[in-house]
Design goal:
Four copies of one chain form a homotetramer. Helix content of chain A is about 50%, strand content about 20%. By secondary structure, chain A is of the alpha+beta class. The first copy, chain A, starts with a helix and ends with a helix. Chains A, B, C, D: InterPro entries: GlcG_carb_metab_protein, PduO/GlcC-like, PduO/GlcC-like_sf.
């Protein structure tokens, strides 16, 4: 009888979850943790960057521009995040493909420069991060560090 | 008894965690049902319209243009859906406010014409529908009928 | 007899003129058939894509985004269809030309990635299809299969 | 002795001029304090908003979207801040002017809805804040509270 009740409860839980047709998302608290980790890494390296984070719908949830960062990075950080979100992959992948000869990809509306990474949870995309301000390799280091520290890599 | 309590706690935890970090969304199957209901209503009235549906992130999931519909409605239907999604309300609310004197709202990037409705599930916005092609009052009737038939109103 | 010949000639002239002033076009019913064929192929391969179809004027007539498809494909599918329509050729032709050295073509407003095909009827262009979501080679397979199944290739 | 006095006067003048060629600006630390004050007020009222802050050049320095805020507020909050910055006045002033009959102001590239305020230091504009998410009157209360708490009003 006990086993039956336990099994019933477990099934009920799974059914409820399935029926609910829900999926994970990114809230401001988690986005803030990711941005804090990015900013801490940038400060430790004495780098100035814009940190941009999009949510599960590709909409901006947080942006910070560190003092002294070039103004153009406000847009670039968001564009890198947009590309990483829209194509569920690091912007570095597109950068490498174009460098290695797939020049035709330039005709797509993408920003193919390292520094943008998708954020996954349970294999579902819940957002992305875009960093711009220093070299694109350094931007990429900040993005990766941020996701690792926040537990997303 | 211990097993039972343990299982109950496990289920409770799974539910709580899942609930806290997930939210409902709109899939193509449901969007298709909504669009079918809209199209059926339009055919029954002999009206030609564009049907546009956005998902929980405000991104286009389905668009249909019925034969003979004015080309401008391709964009208008999407703009109505965008406004309904972005502001979680019927575009008719903005239309009425401006008509009744709140003329300053025209300075906002909205499309304040009836025919756009948000789609809610469990009080969470999971998308929106935008209809354009006939009079805006008729567009609104199609949008409402579609959501009612599909069980969202 | 003279009257009969005169009447016949008049009718023939009217018919010819009328025929000369019409051209084939794509309606929603045919676009739906093409999209259904594309979706069926995608499902059979377990691929997720956006299906986009333009009509004889190059205007969007139908769009479907299958669950889980990357958001960026909403725009890319439409851009591939636009390029295929505007230049009456497969987007793969431009991709190959650029890969083979005609890099200057990047300065044109085209999307030179496989997955876009024009739709012809009686040697007249009546629309185009754009597929995006998996690899561009796989996108191309879906586009071709859809047109073949629907009787346009 | 005359030479010494002359040299001293020259140095003093140069220093003063140099000093006169700087102006106050807004850094991320101060912008964060203002945003924290805005967010605290919003939480205390159970309101969900987007907080947007521009610097002395009118460029975005910080943006936060609280959970559940309508997506359209991402753009509106930035537009309100832009208008407050570009015209050195509260967006409510434009809203009131249009409501009172100056409808022609709609033809200007402004967002005439309460919730945007310029930030001054020593009578020099160093940035602006834009709030969007609840009613425009409530948005305005958050903006004012934020600047008062942070010592700018």
């Amino acid at each position: 009888m006990k086993n039956f009740v336990a099994t019933f409860l477990l099934c009920f839980t799974i059914c409820t979850l399935a029926y609910a047709q829900t999926q994970p998302y990114l809230n401001l608290e988690t986005a803030t943790k990711i941005a804090d980790a990015a900013q801490e890494k940038a400060i430790s390296e004495n780098w100035n960057v814009v940190i941009s984070i999009l949510d599960q719908g590709g909409n901006l949830i947080l942006l910070r521009r560190m003092d002294g960062t070039q103004i153009g990075s406000i847009e670039i950080a968001q564009l890198k995040a947009k590309t990483a979100f829209e194509f569920k992959r690091s912007t570095k992948i597109f950068e490498d493909m174009i460098k290695e000869g797939s020049v035709h990809l330039i005709t797509m509306p993408i920003t193919a420069v390292e520094g943008g990474l998708p954020i996954f949870k349970d294999d579902v995309i819940i957002g992305s991060i875009g960093i711009s301000g220093v070299t694109s390799a350094q931007d990429g280091i900040i993005a990766e560090t941020a996701l690792r520290v926040a537990g997303f890599m």
